[in-house]
Hints:
Layout: H1 4-7, E1 28-33, H2 35-40, H3 42-53, H4 60-75, E2 81-87, E3 90-99, H5 116-123, E4 127-135, H6 144-154, E5 160-165, H7 170-178, E6 182-188, E7 199-201, E8 220-227
Helix pairs in contact: 3-4
Amino acid sequence: MVDIRVRLVQRVSGGLAYLRAGVHVSEVFIRRLSRWQAEQQREDVADVYVEAYHRVHGEEFHDRQEFLRAFAEDVQRTGFDMVVASGGGKPAAHAYGFLLDRDGEWWRGLDDGVPWDVEELTVSGQVFGLAELMVLPAFRRSGVATRMVEQLLLRTDAALVTMRIDPANEAAVGALRSWGWTRLGVARSAASEAVPSVGVGVGVGVGAAGTGAGAGAGGGTDVWCRALTP
Length: 230
């Protein structure tokens, strides 16, 4: 049997299926933001972030500031790209990502180590990291998240897309499985280390975080990947 980790980086055909339920996807308009536009709209993006996650009551200001700090860094990363969705003239969702640094920091702490093929793609700048996907509650389970991810990945020349999430995030895990992603392993970290995990606000109670707030101290984040079509 071919190792699933090797098959991860083989280019495959086919697209992402739309999930249609609830809000009609035709009512949502998706567009791309340039790096400059993303920076100019950072306050609006932070508002959506806070509303999409609804974490610990009373910590909204802290969460917002942490997001803005991380977002300011992410916007400057190589290969940064972002799409936004709006419905009824109001923000509905945001998604963005960037090419992973070639030093392999993203894979730090992976329990089984980094597969050779994934490592080669990272060194050659061929891995796109999905850094954030947040959808407001009113637009969830409507296919918006699926459309946004598809549009974001259509523009990258990377061969592989990856993200790190809290393993307890059932909504995010379910979404990734339905999109054809594969779990590569779990990345563990010491209490003093900040692991770059990703928030996926596509379901209910989905949490943390492009700001590094994913798993608890000494815990771990699940690493997921998907091969991209040429």
